[in-house]
Amino acid sequence: MLIKCRERSSHSLDPRMNLILLEPHEVGASGEAVLSDARAAHLRNVLKSAPGSHVRIGLLDGPRGVGTVLSIGDGTAALRCAFETSVPSRPGVDLLLALPRPKVIRRIWAQVAAIGVGQIILTHAERVERNYFDTHWLAPESYRPRLIEGLQQARDTRLPAVSIHRRFKVLIEDQLDGLFKDGRRLAADPAAEKPAGAAAREGGEGRVLLAVGPEGGWNDFERGLLAAHGFQPVGMGPRTLRTDTACIALLALVHEGMKG
């Protein structure tokens, strides 16, 4: 869908504002959008917006911009949208994650979207209970709002791609090259001597795929299979961390390393 974009104006914006993320179908040809959900409530009750206020907005998988509040009431808010001409780059880090417990994956969605990943590849491992795959948090209607929540927190627009694989060996041997063609492959391992940030820094330009195992760790077969398919073991010390803590810490180190 083509959206009429006006040149972004240089209005003063409150730096505390999060991004209000819009779906493409919500923006009309005239550049106006009417919100009647939690975003409207956020504009009214948290940002204290009024007609004439300017707020940060973004188009899902599209550009960022500025929204001018045209009207705001108890349940609705109307915005005039002015988008930038460029689209944010997709984050250069992808995450391969052994599926954690349902209450943990519920927390992870928004966190990894906020810190920045291009795709999330969920898989089985020996220390992953098979019934974890039955959770409703693997349904797009459940995890997509969480991903969007993370993007709005981080002021990003690029929605991570998600794929779910119940067979680890099939994923690594037959499917992974199609999901991640070029770039460095790193596998988190508390016993690894190479720090994750240093490994990301040494590889130069290109994407990075970070594999994070279950809280009990990858078993010997899984570590061997990862190594046979180009994964370098990396760590951040000997401590065994919860999955959500490990994901965020490792992703932060890899992002920082890629800058160097």
UniProtKB/TrEMBL annotation:
Keyword terms of this UniProt record: Cytoplasm, Methyltransferase, rRNA processing, S-adenosyl-L-methionine, Transferase
InterPro entries: Alpha/beta_knot_MTases, RsmE, RsmE_MTase_dom, tRNA_m1G_MTases_N
GO molecular function, one term: rRNA (uridine-N3-)-methyltransferase activity
GO cellular component, as recorded: cytoplasm
Catalytic activity annotation: uridine(1498) in 16S rRNA + S-adenosyl-L-methionine = N(3)-methyluridine(1498) in 16S rRNA + S-adenosyl-L-homocysteine + H(+)
GO biological process: rRNA base methylation
EC number: 2.1.1.193
Record localization: Cytoplasm
Broadest EC class assigned to this enzyme: transferase
Pfam families: Methyltrans_RNA
Domain of life: Bacteria
Domain Ribosomal RNA small subunit methyltransferase E methyltransferase: 92-254
Known role: Specifically methylates the N3 position of the uracil ring of uridine 1498 (m3U1498) in 16S rRNA. Acts on the fully assembled 30S ribosomal subunit.
Protein family: Belongs to the RNA methyltransferase RsmE family.
Annotated PANTHER family: 16S RRNA (URACIL(1498)-N(3))-METHYLTRANSFERASE, RIBOSOMAL RNA SMALL SUBUNIT METHYLTRANSFERASE E
UniProt protein name: Ribosomal RNA small subunit methyltransferase E
Organism: Candidatus Manganitrophus noduliformans
Lineage per the UniProt record: Bacteria, Pseudomonadati, Nitrospirota, Nitrospiria, Candidatus Troglogloeales
